[in-house]
Design goal:
two-stranded antiparallel sheet; 6% strand; 6 helices; Arc Repressor Mutant, subunit A; mainly alpha
Length: 157
């Protein structure tokens, strides 16, 4: 009864076979599954956890550097940073060498939360790859590294 206002386009374009689309959908599904637990326990959104995870590994980055490292939109990172600052999970300091530049780091409470969430995330990832042999995992890692390097360079120009 309910027909779409416009019928689907007839073409050879198969969205469900497009690698970037499939990877995006898979990433969203995995992130959503993993995030449910840390959201329930700590009230963290995916973007907030990603900022915390990066700062846990690379303290002293600016918000712009976090955005570049995660390939997340600058506005999304800025909003996540604002919420994390408000909650006291990260702190902002003036860079020692460049007084115009502010850098971010986990606060003491942020380190505590990070140290509880990180093992949860690692456990989810272990479960995700349970059906992979070590060889399959190594091949996947190699292919992802290749795509992230040479593949992306080719399309970015």
């Amino acid at each position: 009864m309910n027909q779409p206002a416009h019928p689907p386009v007839q073409s050879d374009f198969d969205l469900d076979r497009l690698f970037s689309y499939r990877l995006s959908v898979l990433s969203n599904r995995i992130s959503g599954a993993i995030s449910r637990e840390y959201h329930r326990r700590f009230g963290l959104a995916i973007t907030e956890w990603r900022v915390m995870a990066v700062l846990g590994r690379f303290p002293g980055l600016s918000a712009g550097e976090v955005s570049a490292r995660t390939a997340m939109d600058k506005v999304a990172v800025s909003r996540a940073v604002a919420r994390l600052l408000e909650r006291g999970l990260i702190q902002r300091e003036i860079h020692d060498d460049d007084r115009r530049r502010s850098v971010l780091a986990l606060s003491t409470e942020g380190v505590r939360v990070h140290d509880e969430v990180a093992p949860m995330v690692m456990e989810y990832h272990q479960r995700l790859f349970e059906s992979f042999t070590p060889e399959e995992r190594a091949v996947l890692d190699k292919l992802l590294d290749k795509l992230a390097g040479d593949g992306v360079k080719r399309i970015e120009g």
